[in-house]
Amino acid sequence: MKRLFVLCAAALLLAACGQVKPGHVGIKVNQYGSGAGVSSEPLGVGTYFTPFGTSIIEYPVFTQTYTYTGSQTEGSQNNEEFTFQDKNGLNIESDVAVSYSVNPTLAPKLYSKFRTDAQGLVNGQIRNAIRNSLNDRASALGVEEIYGPKKAQLLADVQADVSNYFKPYGLNIEKLFYAGTIRMPQQVRDQINQRIANEQAALAAQANVATATANAQAKIEAAKGDAEANRLIAESIRTNPEIVQLRAIEKWNGVLPVYTGGSGPMPFIGVGK
Fold first, then answer.
1. pTM score, two decimals?
2. CB atoms within 10 A of CB 250
3. Greater model confidence, 75 or 7
């Protein structure tokens, strides 16, 4: 009987204990009595006595990543994609992932502000902050900017907004990134892709024209060079006719012709006399 009593007491004692797992920080919350409220001291890894009305809330101090997506294979089974509008009111959809962690020294302040655990923050406050910033930032941009040159900057600005909002409470928003392509009506996407293709074709055509122009100019310059060289040669021959005979001698193989017609002079005989 005594042994049974001891076992029951031990079981009750264990039931009245809470635990903070490795990689987490704990916050003790008391709902009753004069000490009701959130303890200002964060709890490290370990087991703590939690009598009736007392509980421990855990936050991760290591980086965790959650993906808000329309896919049922990631995040929630519900559609959690973000829908926002460009400056012309065009609806745009995107999957966004967030990496976050909690500053352990500020964990009590974080819970006092939002009164929820990590999953509650992900489902509620973090998601709302991202959505609000996306709507605000995207409303100043056109769809072609969001889809193209300002795509990365848009999310960087949203990350800065969300990070600055949560930082005083110890919630570190480490990274926001697209978890898929930005989605829009197919007709709009086709128009943007066609415009990009046209611009690339125009650039290629300009490059071809520039290359052809450069080649033509090179040929013109080469022809000018040849003409100038020929002019100088002709001028040299005109003023120095002996050059013709000199070059002929340089190329002669030393064999006299077998037959020469007419009364013309024998080649090179008498040259230099």
1. 0.66
2. 7
3. 75
